[in-house]
């Protein structure tokens, strides 16, 4: 990414923070009540205080552990189930109806089920996180596998390859772009649900601490929690996208930027290339 794009992104963030500081410091009360919001300076001060405390890092570790466990389980099982449904008629008949019935249910609505089903709150939160990421990964994998052209599979079978060779040499590599698309969606949904689950039934974690700050009317602490959640979500999503780019490095990449105006003008002004005439073939003499 060019330096200019980084400058634009940093300027966009700085402008948003500056507008926030201006509206809250002036206690603007139009329709939105910005006078109730803490200023950027108050949130920054609270954030600096939290960084020096042990509970902040403890909550961070709990949330990250729950995300990693739930997301890895969803990635492995989602890819396996999506591939099986796309490749096997039996799997589609057995698992397909269950997936379509369970998929519309919000993961956070399964909190009572997790409380009743699992022995500890920690396992229940991991279960909610797993469920949130599982269905986006499964659906993306299923569509990516079904969209593959059968030509490569037929070529491998013709050359004597078996079903496992087709799976690991054709199906999974060909479906990787779609799989990582589902993983990118899944990690974002997983963060939404793990924070909500921590607020409802957690004992530690960023979501739990943010809710506790709200109950004691510590609004700067609430915004510290929100900023922490946003930063963690951005970092994990960036990590998934980075792994996706590395895993699909064999794919052609679009140009980073369009050609300049001068280059386009020179391209259009260049005369068309005239193909040279083909050499005449010597005719055999007619007897």
Can you characterise this structure?
By secondary structure, this protein is mostly helical. It is built from eleven helices and no strands. The chain has helices at residues 3-25, 40-51, 54-87, 89-102, 111-117, 121-146, 150-158, 163-201, 206-215, 219-247, 261-269. Helix 7 (150-158) packs across helix 8 (163-201).
Which key features would you list for this structure?
287 residues, mainly alpha, 11 helices, 0% strand, disordered C terminus
Quote the distance from N terminus to C terminus: 72 Å
In total, the number of strands is 0
Return Rg in Å: 27 Å
Overall helicity: over 70%
* Weakly predicted, low-confidence segments: 278-287
- Portion in strands: under 5%
Note the run of SSEs as H and E: HHHHHHHHHHH
What's the overall geometry? Answer: globular
The main pleated sheet reads as: none
Structural class of the secondary elements?
Answer: mainly alpha
Average pLDDT level:
84
Number of helices: 11
